[in-house]
């Protein structure tokens, strides 16, 4: 890329209003995170503001942009048997469009402490 094209690209990003920057509420964005059973992010991409374990098997993951119009997918990370449920954060009144609530379960369907991965893809 030439220095002129690079300067033009930088100027374009800097001049866009915050709501129009890619990944900040409109447009295409992708976030991925690997989280421990304690609720700490231990890998992944930027864009995740915080991760908190609320109780055994229940976690809140906050993103810097609204993700209520995005798709999301969670899975158990590692060899532990179980499953993951993901939905917009119900425990944050009122439902915050930037927060996902993740629940991890053991093989019998009971809430359980499990490492998990989370993928969010946005095209709004």
State the order of secondary-structure elements, H for helix, E for strand: HEEEEEEEE
**Total strands:** 8
**Mind telling me the C-alpha Rg?**
17 Å
Distance N terminus to C terminus?
29 Å
Integer count of domains = 1
Q: Going across the major beta sheet, what is the strand order?
A: 2-1-8-5
Largest sheet: 4 strands, antiparallel
Mean pLDDT: 79
Binned, the helix content reads 10-25%
Uncertain residue segments: 1-23
Secondary-structure content class: mainly beta
Number of helical regions: 1
Which band does the percent of strand residues land in? 35-45%
Shape: globular
Summarize the structure.
Helix content is about 10%, strand content about 45%.
Description:
- The chain contains one helix and eight strands, in the order H-E-E-E-E-E-E-E-E.
- It is about 10% helix and about 45% strand.
- The longest helix has 13 residues, at about 5-15.
- It is globular.
- It has one helix at about 5-15, and strands at about 30-35, 40-45, 50-55, 60-65, 70-75, 85-90, 100-105, 115-124.
- With about 120 residues, the chain is mainly beta.
- This is DUF2147 domain-containing protein.
